[in-house]
Amino acid sequence: MKKIALAVCAASALFGASAYNYEFTPVAGYAHSAGRGLNSEGFIGLRIARNIDATLLSQVELGFDYSPSVGIKYEGKNTDIERYYANLIKGFDVTNWLNIYGLLGLGYEHLGERTDGAKRDSGFAQAGLGFKFPVTDNFALKLEARDLLNFHHGRHTQMYTLGFAVSFDKKEKEMAPAPAPVAPVIGDEDGDGVLDDKDRCPGTPKGVVVDEYGCEHVIRLDLAALFAFDSAKVTPEYEHRIDEVARVLVKNPNYKVILEGNTDSTGPAEYNKKLSLKRANAVAAVLEKQGVSKDRITTVGLGKDNPVASNATKEGRAKNRRVDAKFRK
After folding, report:
1. Which of 33, 208, 235, 240 is 20 to 30 Å from 142 at the Cα level?
2. Nearest in space to 40 (alpha carbons), one of 5, 11, 69, 18
3. What SS3 class is residue 5?
4. pLDDT at 207
5. Distance CA 69, CA 81 (A)
6. Residue 119's closest CA among 159, 86, 80, 175?
7. Long-range CB contacts (< 8 A, 24+ apart) of 2-7?
8. Number of C-alpha atoms within 13 angstroms, CB side, residue 114?
9. Beta pairing partners, 62
10. Phi, psi of 151, deg, nearest 5
11. C-alpha to C-alpha distance for 279 and 296, rounded to whole angstroms
12. Is residue 167 within 8 Å of residue 18, measured between CB atoms?
């Protein structure tokens, strides 16, 4: 029995995982009892095993063996023997067509005919070594040898079996988690700090300050509220309208501003261009008074060349008379 126990330890190194949860094995075999006063016996049995596939354990097995009409030596009688047991099994793959396994277990033996103290019911321990030959995905032949140690009188019974193992209840394959969707990389082609999927004004020149939609940030000053007719002087009561431009420049010390003066189409072009520049310079003077350094301000007079509305209407001409503040980094 010590040799078989050592074989069990050796067999517990590796084992191929089963694709099924359970294994059902009808068996037939031969048993030889040493010194028990019983003749050698043939037997049949059934086993059901739960596949564990753990590091130290492959199966937990419940079994039943039945030996009919076993001869009792020197008494001319026969007895039936029933054995019930539970085994822990561990094994390993040698090749694709051969598994070797070892087992350790405990059981109970019942004799139908009791004649003397050597032949009574008793518990037993067993150890064994087996060979499993897979035939199909869920069917295999098993050859097994077990040594039973009777707890009552300490004698051994050697049992040899041929089994037909049928696996069932196939395990669900563990699906690998789906890879997390990769978000498309959204670039900023014009480098204005607004991603292309939100940029309403692609192709913005470098250095132009833009709003949250990627369009140039422009503060438009209505000249009708800032200047008297045909004048380039900002009336004091309207200087506060330029505060918005000053606030942007104060908040962003690295910004510079371009003040573009514009007029409608009324009057001589050259005169309007000079007037538009004067009005841009007037707004610049207010910004300087509000603390904006002169070297951060550039003025341009565009005259009538950059309308934002039609000059054919009074309302359109009013919109064209303006100073636009545009920011640069």
Report:
1. 33
2. 69
3. helix
4. 83
5. 8
6. 80
7. 4/102, 4/127, 4/128, 4/129, 4/145, 4/146, 4/147, 5/104, 5/127, 7/102, 7/129
8. 7
9. 48, 86
10. -70, -25
11. 17
12. yes
Mean pLDDT over 304-310 rounds to 89
Contacts of 309 (CB under 8 A, 6+ apart): 315, 316, 317, 319, 320
Q: How far is CA 242 from the centre of its chain?
A: 55
> How many residues are given for the chain?
329
pLDDT digits (tens, 9 = 90+) for 75-94: 778 889 999 999 999 988 89
The tokens of 160 are what? 């040899």
Q: How far is CA 105 from the centre of its chain?
A: 42
Helices 269-289 and 243-251, axial angle in degrees (round to 10) = 60
Nearest residue to 307 (alpha-carbon basis) of 260, 270, 267:
260
φ and ψ of 223, to 5 deg: -65, -25
Instruction: Give the strands of the sheet with 218-222, arranged side by side.
Output: 218-222, 322-328, 256-262, 297-301
pLDDT at 38: 83
Minimal CA–CA distance to 231: which of 176, 201, 276?
276
The alpha-carbon radius of gyration of the chain (Å, integer) is 50
Structure tokens at 40: 């050698």
d(CA 70, CA 288): 120
Lookup result for tokens 């396994």: 101
Are residues 101 and 58 in contact, defined by beta-carbon separation less than 8 angstroms? yes
Q: Is the pLDDT of residue 157 over 80?
A: yes
Checking if the pLDDT of 197 tops 90, the result is: no
Q: Which residue has the tokens 């009792």?
A: 72
3-state secondary structure of 274: helix
Tokens matching residue 153: 């009188």
Q: How far apart are CA 13 and CA 18, in angstroms?
A: 16
In one-letter notation, the amino acid at residue 241 is R
